[in-house]
Structure formats: C-alpha cells, structure tokens
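Reviewers asked in the last cycle whether our approach scales beyond single polypeptides. To address this, we selected a multi-component target totalling 399 residues and predicted its structure end to end. The input consisted of the following lines:
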Amino acid sequence: MNIFEDTAPTSSRKRPIRVVVLGASGSIGMQTLDVCRQHTDKVEVVGLAVRSSTEFVARAAERHGVRVVAVTDERHAKDPALESLPAGCDLLVGDDALEEICLRDDVDCVVSAVVGFAGINAGYAALKAGKTLLYANKESLVVGGDLLMPLVAPGQLIPVDSEHSAIYQCLVGERRSDLHRIWLTCSGGPFFGMSRRQLLNVTAGDALRHPTWQMGAKITIDSATLMNKGLEVLEAHHLFDVDVDDVSVLVQRQSMIHSMVEFSDGVVKAQLGPSDMRIPIQYALSYPERWDSPADRVDYCGAPNFTFDRADEDTFGCLALAKRAGREGGIMPCAMNAANEVANLAFREDRCNFLDIEEVVRSVMNETKPDPVESLEQLHEVDARSREAASRALARISR
Ligand code: NDP
Ligand code: MG
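The resulting structure, written as structure tokens, was:
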C-alpha cells in the first residue's frame, strides 16, 4: 500500500511518438537524436530540419530512417549530400519548410531546437495544429509568448531548457495558486566575479570556454553576458504565468540545482541531478513517464558543497535590460532580442567588445515603444527594424 496518492498524469501512449527535430544539427538537436536512439521502442524520428548542414542531415536521415528532411537555406537545396537521402524521403526547402514539416499528419511531436527568433513561425504552427511542442527555442517564446501561450493546452508545451524543466518538474501535482516564487539558478558564466574594467578585455574565445555546459556559440555568449538568464526569466514568466519580479536569479556555481520553486507555506522544492542536457530533453519526450537515465548518476557524498550568490546585474547589464524588457512587455522583448542577436554575432566575429553588447541592446530598447503584441507579421517587422537599429548602434559604438 502506497502512503501517497499518485497525482501525476499517466500516459495513454499506445505507439512510439512520431517526432520531428528542428535544428537537428545543433547542440540540442544532436543530443535529442542521441536520446531518441536510446529509446527506439518509444520514439520514432520521422523528420529533421536544419538551415544549411546538409551533410549532417543526410547522415542522420540515413541513420534514423526518416521520412522527411527540411533545409531552410535555399542556397543549399542542391548540395550533393542531399542526393544520398533515404529512398522515399521527402525534401522540403526554404523558409516555410520548418512550418511545413511540423504540419505533417505523420508528426505527433515537434522538438524545436532552432536558435533565435527564426524558430517562431514553426512553434506557432505546431501549437496551432495541436502538436506537442518540446521547446528549447527560448528566443521565440521570449519574443512571442503573448501569441504562443494562449494556444497551449495543458501538457502540450514541455520546456527543454534545464531550468524550466526543473521548475516544471517541481510543479507537477501542485496547485498553481500555491506558487509563491521561482528561484532560477545560474552558473554565473565564465566571467563570474569580474569587474567591468576586466570585462572590457575578454574575447569570444574566453567566453566560449563555459564552465559547465557544451552549447551552441550563441547561447554560450549569452551565458557569459547573463543575457541567457535574462531570456530565461522572461521564458519562466510566459511558461508559468508569473510576474518578472517573482522570478529571482540565484547563482549556483556548481550547476547541480537546476532551479527551485517556493510555495506559499515557505516550502522550497529543488530539482537536482547531473548537468547533462539529455536529461531535460528526455524528460520532455517521456513526460509524464520517466525513462532510464541517459547520463551518469551523481554521488552526492562526493559532491562539492553547494553555494548560492546573488546575480550581479550592475556588472552584467544584459540581465537587468532583459528584466526591464519583460516588465515593459509588448514588443519590447522583441526589440531587445533582435538587438542581442545582432550584437552577440558581432562580438563572436570580433566586431565589438563584450560590454558593447549591452550598449547595443540598451540603445535599441531606448528607441522602442512597448506597443502591445498583435501578430506574427508585426513581430517580424519589429525584429527587422530592431536589427537595423542595432547595426546602426554598432557602427556608432565601434567608430
Ligand atoms: P546551435 O547553434 O548548436 O544549433 C542551432 C541549430 O538551429 C542548428 O541545427 C542550425 O542549423 C539550426 N538553425 C539555425 N537557424 C535556422 C533556421 N533559420 N532554420 C532552420 N534551422 C536553423 O544551438 P543550440 O543547440 O545551442 O541551441 C538551440 C536552442 O536551444 C537555442 O534557442 C538555445 O537558447 C536553446 N538552448 C540550448 C541549450 C544548450 O545546451 N545548447 C540549453 C538550453 C536551451 P545549421 O547547422 O544548418 O545552421
Ligand atoms: Mg538554461
């Protein structure tokens, strides 16, 4: 006899989930395929989408025996690698290919691991078509949460970001009205403890040596500026319907507590585990079940002591700017995100210094009025306009 009532929803699955992976050639995409390979009895990969990594996608298509491949960059439509796609595999090309692949009848579930705002139409289309959306593409949620979240049915959108997966897991079986505060943990990034004077001289190479996670280049820079944490505050705000100021960022240098939820009675639930993105990816696929771990287990007796620090928003101004964008709302997060995407790339290409990133974001936000979000078309316009403003700000700053 069990002493507790089992409140977690149970799965009614009768056949493997049919999955497409958008951004299959990236860090999250590849780890998703790794998890899928370990659970072929439960997951069938039916489709893969990339921007231009045609050699990768052709190999992965063969390996997983997929039925459809999408390549969004038309300049790569005739790449020789695509001639070796499995027999009968459909090839979709162009910007709309991401949406088309999500809308197929033989797809139950979309893993969106595209980087940046470029993933927004696909996420919107997947939700609208009633597909389950496993969402890593945080920029789209930050920019378009006001349009995306009203489409979501319970259990339809499962976060992949490790912190949001942790929060989701802490909330299963709880009443939403009992949630008091979210403690969003943060590694602190490679430049934790540095002064602004020291930050003037850091390079993209320094930032790319992240202490805990092996990730794509864009999010690695965002982790160093703490913009990633700012995006995650806004992500939590949309996913869990909490005010921006009810999400507190907590530096947890060991990256073993993936986030915490505090309830009205003062009780805090934390989710711990190995720092391995395959765990939240697998949880999103398996929910509401749990499958065997894809990663080594932690020996907590030998684990380092846990430390907690306040995030330094004065030194890492991007975190403060993202929160400001979240408080102002409307199209402000769209402008903030576009400026950050432009400045992040400029820093990686050595066209500006580390502190210029926040300067560009601030400058574009100061030019933007937070009108309400109305449509995807409007967000695309604001995104384009903000990218132009960011390029002008960069030219001014680096002169
Ligand atoms: P990567 O840069 O490693 O990979 C990006 C992927 O997106 C590639 O497959 C790329 O294809 C594809 N892509 C980019 N633009 C387009 C486009 N216009 N159309 C189709 N595909 C496109 O990124 P990550 O895997 O690191 O990150 C992906 C998302 O997950 C981001 O939003 C990030 O914030 C989030 N995330 C990542 C974590 C991580 O550990 N990496 C952790 C938590 C969240 P191609 O190779 O052809 O260019
Ligand atoms: Mg994260």
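The radius of gyration is 21 Å. We regard this as preliminary and will revisit it once experimental data from Aim 1 are available.
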